[in-house]
Specification:
Length: 303
């Protein structure tokens, strides 16, 4: 009889523990594990941007209260160049885990956030994990390796010494970088049309070191020159295309090197300026399909 009583007691104890596992574990974490939820992010690298945008802004508050806070946290972490970072949801933000799950599985939104960070801090793969107790961990694999960055930076400095001088205006410098990139790279038609990958043409490496580009390569390469000039910019994307947004003399302009380097039937190289520092209204008049972007996201360029 004693055996059955003990067995019944163990069953009840197990059932109680299972049913109340979350509050019990929370008590355990609170009183027995010294887990610091006051999170700060002090790390940054040479490519951390010190400015904000309408869509996402830097933050030092890693306790989110709403979805926009989550966007700002993701941007801040990516912008810092960190490879791993954890923060916490609170009970007050009841939808936090659901919103994190939604964000983590929304590649369009994640790619959009990626457009606002320096190319060297952009992610190739971003993994979000979370537990039932509010801990969120981001693990980031970057687009560019340290070896890539070293080679690209050396090439950019070499090009700048060749094409720029101290008497040039910022617009002149942008134009020279625009011309150099277009004159020294070709659109990677094999990759875009047939998925034949011979070059890193979707990155600045392919554009500057291999001479072959897709729109992502043109755009990343241009971003590097804009950054060295201290000009605020970001990548702007539509469904199937990406180009540069540039702040020059306190106004925002579109800059699309891909479309200024058209493919010709005879294979000849052409350099155009149709998409060189143009306004949104000018862009709409020129082409409205591939450049049909979300004006709520990239709202600096909405007018």
């Amino acid at each position: 009889m004693k055996k059955y009583v003990v067995l019944l007691f163990l069953i009840i104890l197990f059932g109680f523990t299972f049913a109340f596992r979350k509050p019990l574990y929370n008590l355990y974490r609170t009183y027995f594990i010294k887990e610091n939820k006051e999170v700060t992010l002090t790390a940054s690298n040479d490519y951390t941007r010190d400015y904000d945008f309408n869509y996402v802004k830097r933050t030092d508050d890693f306790t989110p209260s709403n979805y926009q806070d989550l966007l700002n946290i993701y941007y801040t972490v990516l912008n810092s160049g960190e490879k791993e970072f954890s923060f916490y949801c609170t009970d007050e933000y009841s939808e936090c885990i659901n919103d994190v799950d939604s964000l983590a599985n929304n590649q369009k939104v994640l790619s959009t956030i990626n457009n606002f960070v320096h190319p060297f801090n952009s992610f190739k793969h971003l993994e979000t994990s979370y537990d039932d107790y509010g801990k969120i961990t981001l693990k980031i694999e970057h687009n560019y390796t340290n070896s890539d960055i070293k080679l690209i930076n050396a090439k950019v400095k070499e090009i700048e010494q060749e094409i720029w001088n101290s008497s040039m205006s910022n617009e002149d410098k942008i134009k020279e970088a625009h011309n150099y990139i277009i004159n020294n790279s070709k659109y990677d038609k094999d990759r875009s049309d047939n998925n034949i990958v011979n070059y890193k043409s979707d990155t600045a490496y392919g554009t500057l070191l291999e001479g072959y580009s897709l729109c992502g390569g043109y755009t990343d390469a241009m971003e590097l020159f804009l950054e060295d000039m201290g000009i605020k910019s970001y990548k702007i994307s539509s469904e199937n295309h990406v180009w540069n947004a540039v702040n020059l003399n306190n106004a925002w302009y579109h800059l699309d090197l891909t479309w200024d380097d058209p493919i010709t039937t005879d294979g000849s190289d052409i350099l155009e300026y149709n998409f060189f520092l143009i306004t949104t209204s000018e862009l709409s008049e020129l082409e409205g399909e591939q450049h049909n972007y979300d004006k709520n996201v990239y709202s600096e360029l909405a007018t």
